Amino acid sequence: MRYAKRIFNFILKNNKFYIVIIVVLLLIVIFQWMVPGYYDYNQISTLVYCDKNPSDQHRYLLFPMVTIVFDGGLGNQLFEVFSLLGLALKLNRTAIFNSEDWILHSKLNLLREQVPQVAERVISIPIEIPESSRFIYSPACCHFQFSPLLSCEQSKYLVIDGHYFQSHKYFSSIETSIRKWLNPPQEEEKLLKKMIRRKDEFRFKICVHIRRGDFLTDSQHAGTASNFTIRAVDHLYTQHPGLVYLFSNDPGWVREKIAAHLDYQSDVKVMETSEAIKDLYFAQIHCDAVLITAPSSTFGWWLGYLSKNQSSVYYRDIQETEDMVKHQMVEEDFFPSTWKKLGMSQNGLIISK
């Protein structure tokens, strides 16, 4: 009885503390109830099989869209969406977003704002679990995978459960459409043309993509190295004297470590844009050559892919870097065959590979 009385008195003296604890617990429960979790694609059967008798029902294709769900940048999202559209065409299916995936739909703003003409190509509808099949891909980012089994799988909803889909081979059949969808609007094109002085209009323009930021800390990617970049820019400028545009997410570092060490500084401009899509617009209108200095950068890849001359896109040999992506990359699947690989010898010479 004495101990029970002590406990009761303790609770009375500390009732504010316990009220706070109860309120916090209630808030946690309410938050978990209101905020949806990640959609569980594991509930979909992986029993994929080939049926030679084609179904007459309309069929759909979807990805879990991990680059959107986990807030990937525009370069990553473009790879995944265009791969979805390219595979849907190949499989005679309609590309869709799963409208029951609430987290996916809460994170479509980047795509809708930057490239609305692309986002609208993918409709959103709910999927029906009993009429769905799931095909699991290797988690590697950068190589092309295609199973003939997918062509004769007749499920109404086919989920290809993979990651990133970073190969141009997924969307080679819609390349012309991609370039059309990503064309700058007429007003934007006028502004872009005004960025170049009239006397510089016909000079050769080298666009250099430099990636720093999270590439320095994520333990997966290798950021741009200044020594390679300076020498590679010199190499291209010697071949094609003109203007050099440096694109980067770290302009201060670029000015200090790159631009200040180039002997033709009057021909060099560090580019600062507020929206990623505007850099891609610039590449289409002005870039005669593109140099990708961080070889696993998907945004650098898109600068090259959308530039004017596909035989003048250069990228650093990823095998010369500490970039961990090289262990899951098939280079001929990631880099188009017309692009040129550059390396650097021990004495600092830039060499073609």
Automatic annotation (TrEMBL):
InterPro entries: Alpha-1-2_FucT, Glyco_trans_11. GO terms for biological process: carbohydrate metabolic process. Coiled coil: none annotated. The chain crosses the membrane at residues 16-35. Keywords: Glycosyltransferase, Membrane, Transferase, Transmembrane, Transmembrane helix. It holds the Pfam family Glyco_transf_11. GO terms for cellular component: membrane. It comes from the Eukaryota. One of its GO terms (molecular function) is galactoside 2-alpha-L-fucosyltransferase activity. This is L-Fucosyltransferase. It comes from Caenorhabditis elegans.
